[in-house]
Prior knowledge:
Strand order of the largest sheet: 5-4-6-7
Order of helices and strands: HEEHHHHHEHHEEHEEEEEHHHHHH
Number of domains: 4
Number of helices: 15
Structural class: alpha+beta
Distance between the termini: 25 Å
Number of strands: 10
Helix content: 55-70%
Low-confidence stretches: none
Amino acid sequence: MSVLVAILGLAFLILIHEAGHFLTALAVGMRPRSFNIGFGPPLAKVRRGGIDYAVRAFPLGGYVKIPGMHRPAPQDVDIHFGRALRESPELVGPTERLKRALSAGDADAARAALAEIDRSCGEQGVPPGVDKGIQEILDGLSAQAYWRQRTWKRVAAILAGPATNLAFAILLFAIVFMVAGGRATTTVQRIVPGHDLARGLRLAPAAQAGLRPGDRVLAINGEAVTASQITERISSSKGRPLTLAVLRGREVVILEPVRPIEVEPGVYRLGFQLHAEPLGLGAAAWKALRTTGVVARETAVTLAGIFHKKERQQIGGTVSIFRASKDAAQVGWASYLGVLGFISLSLALLNLLPLLPLDGGHIAFSLLEGIRGRAIAREIYERVSAVGIAVVLLLFFVGLSNDVGRLGG
């Protein structure tokens, strides 16, 4: 059941991201041609109001097809009609006229050439891909085309995706702080299973020491601690034995000394979770914003240090994301919502990187074109996209290699 919940949660994050693009594009006058969850061949597809809605075979993302993301260029003719030209030499004349019209920026002449290609194919039989090519170029010439819009409309349509994920993350954090707690106490709520701390560990150190839910932690190694000091004292122990004094009912109990487990480089845990007091609406909203800022800063540091071993080890891939969601769903709905919030925030931050083909790259190029007052050449888009794809593949490879390492212990 937890696996299904994890899958549905991740699919929902993709859904709201694409819905942000889709609804904003509609609102500013760019009518999308399709709304897709996943990639590859469609498993289910329906057409409503001239828009195709599809669920596709590989649920690792999604996309909204906005017409005319780039100004049609002569090379598009070869891409869309190259095969047809080999089979139908009579298309050479109209396709050459189409190239000249696109090069000159003459939309009327380009539409006339497309109509000629369509008529010729209708008489001879339509070669594969021609209908799609005609529609793609017509979309790029239409008044709804993305590249024709004012800068603020383009930025709004692209920014809406990551902004939706960001807003959803803040909402989830606020709900968790309001309902499940945000201000830690010294009372133990839960003992973490040993295997959640380290592979092959049967009992967490807290369980070995005899710590129980409901115990109130009074001191560590004879020194009194507040709620905020408990985690700090354990984490900074460097694995040295710790002795906890707890209040159990009305009796003070001294537990057996135990060594914390190193769960991350330099981070030690005993394996228990403290009870947290719920926050009010205002306090929860403010803490949600602060949490978002802290995570955004730490994510930026991690990405900036991708070539540093310690920072690189913090990057996770699809397996880590799915595993974290599944484990959180097993713990409880509050933990699951918190993890889902972190994933939603990570999705927003990743997409805001100023790299094509990510959303941040499209935003950066839209702003540059707005400042210049004219479109950037397609060749530059393609070169920058190649660099962006290489960086994204590097992140994917690092995340995948870390996943494999964690699965292998």
